[in-house]
Amino acid sequence: MLEFDDIQHILLTRVPALTGRYEFLSFRNAAGGRDWLSALLPKVQSAAEVRASTEMDNRWVSVAFTWNGLRALGLGGDSLATFPEEFRQGMVARAEMLGDTGRNHSENWVGGLARTDLHTIVILFARDAAERGRCLTEHDKLVAQCEGVEVLSTLDLEATPPFDYAHDHFGYRDRLSQPVIEGTGEVPTPGTGAPLKPGEFILGYPDEDGPPANLPQPEILSRNGSYMAYRRLQEHVGKFRDFLREHGKTPEEQELIAAKLMGRWRSGAPLVLAPDKDDPVLGADPQRNNDFNYKQMDPHGYAVPLGSHIRRMNPRDTAHNMNRRRMIRRGATYGPHLPERAAEDGAERGIAAFVICASLIRQFEFAQNVWVNDKAFHELGNERDPIIGNQDGTLEFKMPKRPIRKKITGLPAFTTVRGGAYFFLPGIKALRYLTALGDASPT
Amino acid sequence: MGIFDTDFDKYTEDAVSIFAATGLNTVFENLEGFPKDWKTNPRAFIKFVRDHHRPSFLEYGEYPFVSADEIKKALQLKAAFSNMLDQMQ
């Protein structure tokens, strides 16, 4: 049985927030860090709490730590050594694996995210800006009271208009394909696939391969925890719109190019089910908008190009071992909305998202390395993910079409990685364990 | 099946399942120093592979009922077609 009262809510639930804020902190002093965590702990909601009171709550708090952060809180070397290598190294060191080279390199990151003294992230989601303001004032007070706790940077999240559905700055509807975890009671929408074993996302439970193995020790620390890969991805909206205008003569043609890059119309309607014309009603219908496969319905990519974003991030029935590579996505958009006819204003805007999984290397890093950035994915040659791949202007994007395919050369980068980190998201009891570290082993 | 010519770590699990499914496990298990618990201990498995791997000088790919010449011609044809399609843009 899943221990809903011990699992941090962000792992299992989505909250009705329109704003938020991430704060990245450093602990100069272990006892000060533990004081901070003790004071924050009562505000970190479990999945059970959020399920019981989402309608009444106005703010939701999660907290997670880098490996250096666990050490800074005073966790012992024996325990630290039991965490997997990729987490111990951190995202910066995994640059080659992740494609964080060139413009995406950590030298260009902002907010101190590449620093080794990045120790923790506090994630706040709030119903409105007023509630966010109230929470951050409270948090500022707490930080001031705790010795050696320093805020490295913060990032405010804002939903982008129109607010009636989730979408990014490019205008693509989001949150359409999300795996369902066995035992949550959630029913997968058609096409999503059967519920997956909880161990794929939550430590301490059986996964698709069998009983849990190689968990960080002690058990109380890892149980009901998970890993989060954080990515701050700037979206170059002006460049994206210029590209569509350059390659499409009419608004209809431009919409089709946008759809081909993603594999879905911006309304969310999947190209497999609506290959020629957008169908916004389909896009908004969860019973239909994820109900498709590739092997039978679009083997050659005439509808969804083989290299499009959704075909890479979730190859469905065209990848081996798929159930071991699913990921939970959370996050939000940041930065000001760029109205449709406005010129690029140079402001930074994008998505600041978390990929949650039980194994960073098997799930997140595999997806980044093989699906997003391998130029030979699906034997394409010279292509990477057109939305989030490492693009340097030398690669292409091919759209299968009868009688002849269309090929775009010199694809520009529509996104840039501005920061990232690997975090461990402990369960509630594990957070309590961390606050008590000083009692067990004085530092 | 698969040539594991990139970062091997990512593919460990695929490799383990492919090896197990094809009965290759019996070969490995008779190697000196091979970790007995390799199916549940990917780190030991990776270490053993890293300690012992050698550059391949020959690779075997199976294409039933097709000769090597026919494969080369087919690849040339594919490249020529691809080139033609690009020129028609």
Give a written overview of the molecule.
- The complex is a heterodimer of chains A (443) and B (89).
- With 443 residues, chain A is an alpha+beta fold.
- Chain A contains 16 helices and ten strands.
- In chain A, strands 2-3-1-4 form a four-stranded antiparallel sheet. A four-stranded antiparallel sheet of chain A has the order 6-7-5-10. In chain A, strands 8-9 form a two-stranded antiparallel ribbon.
- In chain A, strand 8 and strand 9 (406-409) form a beta hairpin.
- The model of chain A has no long low-confidence stretch (mean pLDDT 96).
- Classes of the chains: A alpha+beta (443), B mainly alpha (89).
- The interface between A and B is medium-sized, with 18 and 15 residues.
**Structural class of the secondary structure composition of chain B?**
mainly alpha
Instruction: List low-confidence stretches of chain B.
Output: none
- Kindly estimate the percentage of residues of chain A that lie in beta strands according to DSSP: 15-25%
Mean pLDDT of chain B: 80
User: Which secondary-structure class do the elements of chain A indicate?
Assistant: alpha+beta
E-strand count of chain B = 0
Q: What is the first-to-last residue Cα distance of chain A?
A: 37 Å
The radius of gyration over CA of chain A amounts to 22 Å
Helix content of chain A: 25-40%
The main β sheet of chain A shows up as: 4 strands, antiparallel
Q: Which outline of chain A best applies?
A: globular
In whole angstroms, the N-to-C terminal distance of chain B is: 36 Å
Give the helices and strands of chain A as they follow along the chain.
Answer: HEHHEHHHHEHEHEHHHHEEHEEEHH
Q: Which percent range describes the beta-strand content of chain B?
A: under 5%
Supply the number of helical segments of chain A: 16
